C-alpha cells in the first residue's frame, strides 16, 4: 500500500473510506433521503464501471457506496457524479445525511416525509457541514408511528402524528364501535356505553379519524412527535420521546437546531448524543430544548474556540 495515513484521512473527509490493505476506497455518494433521479442512477452506474469495481452498494443510511475506487481516480469519480448533481461525503463528526421513509406516498403517511427531510437536509446537513460535533449526529423522519425508518434509534427522530379530536357528546356508544375496531394499539374502547381513548396508549396514528358514523372523531390535528438520544451499534440506546407534540414545521426545525447546538456546546469528544443526554439528565436536556436560551447564544456556540476533536471513525 502506497497511500499515506495523512491522505487516507484527507479523502475520508471527502467521503472515501479506505479498503484496507489496498490503494482503493469506497466512495460514499450522498442522496437526499435515499431518492435520486433515473439519470443520476445511470451516472452512478457508469462511474462505478469506469472508476470502481463495477459494484454499487447501498447503506443503511440510504447513501450509495462504490467500492474499489483507486486513490488516483477519486477526483475523476467526483467530477463524474457532480456533473449530475450528486456529491460524496457523509463521514466525520458532523450532522449526517437525513433519512426518511416513503411517507409522502405511503397509505399510512401522515406527513410529506420527502419534503420535510429535504428541508432538514438543506438546513442542517448542508447548512451545518462545517460545524464540528462530539460525534456523528443522525436524523430520521418517519411518516407515521409504524416507525419503518426507526426514528427512535437516531440522535433525532421525527414521527408524523394525527391527534384524534374526539367529541364525546357525539358518541352513541355503539355495541360494534368502528373506532375501537380499527385502533391498532387498543387505545380506544367503549366503557359503560361511551367511547374512551387512553391517551397514554394512543400513538396518534390517525386511523380512527372519520371512522365513526356519528362523527365523534371527524378530524385529527397534524403534528410531529420527536425522539432524542437514539443510537444503534455496539451499544444500543432507544430514544426517549419529548413530552410535546410539535404542531408547526418552524417549531420542529427550531427544536432540531437547538439539539445540534446543545450537543456541540455541552457534549464531550467521542460521546454520542445519547451519552450526553444520560450525563446531563433527560429532564435537563428536554427543558433546554423546549426553551430558547440556546438559540439566544447560537452565534457564541458556533464561534467558540473548538474544544472538540470528534469521535466518528467512519
Q: What is the general shape? A: globular
Beta content comes to 15-25%
Average of pLDDT: 95
| Number of extended strands | 11
Helix content: 25-40%
Q: How do the helices and strands follow one another from N- to C-terminus?
A: HEEHEEHEHEEHEEEEHHHHH
Radius of gyration using CA atoms only = 23 Å
Distance between the termini: 20 Å
Number of helices: 10
Query: Unreliable runs, pLDDT <50, ≥5 residues?
Result: none
Across the major sheet, the strand order is 5-6-7-10-11
Q: Which class do the helix and strand fractions yield?
A: alpha+beta
Largest sheet, described in full? 5 strands, mixed
Provide an overview of this structure.
This protein has about 325 residues and is of the alpha+beta class. The chain is built from 10 helices and 11 strands. The radius of gyration is 23 Å and the shape is globular. The two termini are about 20 Å apart. The model has no long low-confidence stretch (mean pLDDT about 95).
Amino acid at each position: 500500500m502506497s497511500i499515506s495515513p495523512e491522505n487516507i484521512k484527507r479523502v475520508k473527509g471527502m467521503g472515501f473510506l479506505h479498503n484496507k490493505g489496498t490503494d482503493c476506497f469506497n466512495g460514499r455518494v450522498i442522496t437526499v433521503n435515499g431518492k435520486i433521479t433515473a439519470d443520476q442512477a445511470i451516472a452512478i452506474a457508469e462511474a462505478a464501471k469506469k472508476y470502481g469495481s463495477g459494484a454499487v452498494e447501498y447503506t443503511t443510511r440510504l447513501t450509495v457506496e462504490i467500492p474499489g475506487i483507486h486513490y488516483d481516480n477519486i477526483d475523476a469519480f467526483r467530477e463524474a457524479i457532480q456533473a449530475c448533481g450528486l456529491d460524496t461525503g457523509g463521514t466525520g463528526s458532523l450532522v449526517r445525511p437525513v433519512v426518511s421513509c416513503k411517507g409522502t406516498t405511503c397509505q399510512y403517511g401522515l406527513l410529506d416525509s420527502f419534503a420535510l427531510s429535504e428541508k432538514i437536509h438543506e438546513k442542517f446537513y448542508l447548512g451545518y457541514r462545517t460545524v464540528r460535533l462530539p460525534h456523528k449526529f443522525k436524523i430520521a423522519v418517519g411518516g407515521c408511528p409504524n416507525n419503518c425508518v426507526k426514528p427512535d434509534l437516531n440522535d433525532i427522530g421525527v414521527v408524523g402524528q394525527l391527534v384524534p379530536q374526539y367529541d364525546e357528546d357525539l358518541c352513541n356508544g355503539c355495541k360494534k364501535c368502528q373506532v375501537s375496531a380499527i385502533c391498532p394499539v387498543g387505545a380506544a374502547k367503549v366503557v359503560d356505553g361511551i367511547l374512551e381513548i387512553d391517551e397514554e396508549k394512543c400513538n396518534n396514528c390517525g386511523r380512527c379519524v372519520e371512522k365513526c358514523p356519528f362523527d365523534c372523531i371527524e378530524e385529527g390535528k397534524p403534528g410531529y412527535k420527536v425522539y432524542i438520544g437514539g443510537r444503534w451499534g455496539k451499544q444500543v440506546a432507544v430514544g426517549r420521546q419529548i413530552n410535546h407534540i410539535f404542531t408547526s414545521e418552524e417549531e420542529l426545525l427550531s427544536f432540531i437546531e437547538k439539539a445540534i447546538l446543545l450537543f456541540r456546546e455541552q457534549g464531550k469528544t467521542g460521546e454520542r448524543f445519547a451519552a450526553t443526554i444520560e450525563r446531563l439528565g433527560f429532564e435537563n436536556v428536554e427543558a433546554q430544548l423546549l426553551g430558547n436560551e440556546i438559540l439566544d447564544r447560537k452565534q457564541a456556540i458556533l464561534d467558540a474556540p473548538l474544544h472538540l476533536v470528534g469521535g466518528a471513525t467512519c
